[in-house]
Design goal:
single chain; alpha+beta; 5-stranded mixed beta sheet; 20 helices; 10 strands; 8% strand; globular
């Protein structure tokens, strides 16, 4: 067999057809429905694979875990912009977005990243997150009440999984109730990045202008919310510029909303498809925290994250060169049999569940604890309050067309 994923990419050997590009399989309808068999093949045949476009695909747990902690794989905005521009074609449009987002915490490297993360940690504490539990419970109960009153069937995404994190985020950051419908529109457009970059870019610009006005109001009239806490933190640290403050607000408010929505959607679907595990959770509600970790592993929302090579390095016997892009497939690592026993089995009591669903290393997802808390409350309440919960008869599932994310368009349920 001709070698796949060598440093020369997929150019093949003179006189022979180029080898099959396994990366191309990940954008097929079959992979959209279920990418995990395709990941398994890539792990077996070309775990560090260079696509025809020149992008590296990493699918083994050990390689991705190492890569997430290696500063030679950069998250820097400027490097990322140049890398996408160099690819040309449709991918060049992404360079506009990476540049437009500015120096948010999630697209900087140390030492800037450490400084901005420290700021966010001071305002976004575990204590503050846990204090939200009772409020999250009230929101979930209200949304379920409304769904049940409306009839015996609903779309879980529309009725609960999408509005819940929006409500929690708005409460946490002090976004006024009258502004929330417009903020929700912007959030939906962010979530459709792979479908319409122009609308996503326009939404980002409008949202940044709105946040700038909100920051100005909090400076004049502080409140008991996270934006006020960040403004107060800036006053204690004059190294933080106004643009960095705004970018930090942007990433903290935006990050986690879609992840939370689809953690609830993907997790509920997995339970409905595994009635033995659903029954186990009903019998022992105290399993919910471990259950959410397993659900995050089993059908990972953020299937892959992007890095750019800042310095030549070798991974899995392949040479990644400066300026090249690398896609680190968290979804593939979380089904790697070298790390997880029987990885395609859903097991709510799985021991040693060190999945990478929320990343690893310096860029570990800051909003992960809040996303998990919301999923614990939402899924736990659905299981407890709706004993007849099941997929609606005749329902079909449509997954959104973004291979880097695992998101249901809708989840029709009955109860």
């Amino acid at each position: 067999m001709t070698s796949i994923g060598t440093g020369d990419g997929a150019r093949g050997t003179a006189g022979l057809a180029p080898p099959h590009d396994l990366a191309a399989d990940l954008i097929t309808p079959e992979a959209r429905r279920d990418p995990y068999p395709f990941y398994a093949r890539m792990r077996r045949e070309s775990p560090v694979h260079r696509s025809a476009q020149g992008i590296w695909y990493l699918t083994r747990y050990t390689d991705v875990e190492t890569a997430l902690g290696d500063l030679r794989l950069s998250n820097d905005r400027d490097r990322m912009t140049r890398a996408y521009e160099a690819l040309g074609g449709d991918l060049k449009a992404f360079s506009r977005l990476t540049d437009r987002l500015g120096r948010v915490m999630t697209n900087t490297d140390p030492p800037d990243h450490a400084r901005l993360r420290k700021l966010a940690n001071r305002a976004f504490t575990a204590r503050r997150v846990e204090a939200l539990r009772d409020g999250v419970q009230r929101i979930v109960d209200r949304l379920i009440d409304q769904a049940v009153e409306a009839g015996p069937t609903t779309d879980l995404i529309e009725a609960v999984a999408a509005p819940m994190p929006m409500s929690v985020t708005c409460e946490l950051f002090g976004i006024p109730p009258e502004d929330r419908p417009q903020v929700e529109v912007w959030f939906r457009r962010f979530g459709r990045l792979g479908e319409d970059i122009d609308k996503s870019e326009e939404a980002i610009e409008q949202y940044e202008e709105y946040l700038a006005g909100l920051v100005r109001r909090r400076r004049a009239h502080p409140g008991d919310d996270l934006i006020s806490a960040l403004v107060a933190t800036q006053a204690q640290d004059d190294r933080l510029s106004d643009s960095e403050l705004l970018s930090t607000c942007f990433v903290l408010i935006t990050a986690g909303g879609e992840t939370t929505t689809h953690l609830i959607g993907n997790g509920t679907l997995a339970l409905l498809r595994h009635p033995d595990q659903l029954a186990r959770l009903r019998a022992d509600p105290g399993l919910i925290r471990a259950a959410v970790e397993e659900l995050a592993r089993y059908d990972t929302v953020t299937q892959a994250i992007v890095r750019v090579v800042a310095e030549d390095l070798e991974i899995g016997g392949q040479l990644l060169r400066e300026g090249e892009l690398a896609y680190l497939f968290l979804g593939a690592t979380n089904r790697d049999p070298e790390r997880f026993e029987d990885p395609d089995r859903l097991d709510l009591t799985r021991p040693g569940n060190r999945h990478l669903g929320f990343g690893h290393g310096p860029h570990f997802c800051l909003g992960g604890p809040l996303a998990k808390l919301q999923a614990e409350v939402a899924i736990g309440t659905l299981v407890r309050r709706l004993p007849a919960l099941r997929l609606a008869d005749g329902s079909t599932l449509d997954w959104q067309p973004n291979p880097l994310q695992r998101r249901l368009s809708a989840l029709p349920i009955t109860y």
